[in-house]
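Memo to structure team: turn this sequence into structure tokens by end of day. - J.P.
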Amino acid sequence: MTFAPIRSERLELRLLTEADRDWLVSVHAQADVGRFIPAGPWTEDIAEEEFAKRISRQGFDTEQGAVSLVATYDGTPVADIVSWFTDREHRVAEIGWAGDPEHAGQGFVTEAAAALLDHLFNDERMHRVAARIDPRNEPSMRVAERLGMQLEGHLRANDWMRGEWCDTLVYGMLASDRNV
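Reply from structure team:
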């Protein structure tokens, strides 16, 4: 089964392609974006490996059980949106996002994540979708809240990243929260 692009009011979400490599690497190489992702800002040393992981995510019906999407506005990439099964059998997934700082403040990340959530609950029939966010990442926390995700927990010093223990906020949404 081929993953069909998702459309929202202003955006198209499509699978990541080789043509997106330079854009994705440039976004994740920025300190303000990369500091909140497990791999950290993408350097030349890790960019190829990280991009290879992303491009292999081609659908929930694949072995990876994941998608890596690019949200475009008038053909210009504005956000990186990912989702993957954390429990395929019980239809539980996680979602993540990163906006291109060049297009910050325009609501693109929220709109793209909302479109993907619609797809996850309506088409993929997810029971639950969660987002794990570093509490220092206030813009991502605001996105989760605008989406209607509920803050379910604050895990203290649970992730070791780049030489320090980091906290994680867990936001969640159930299919029943969306009246699906």
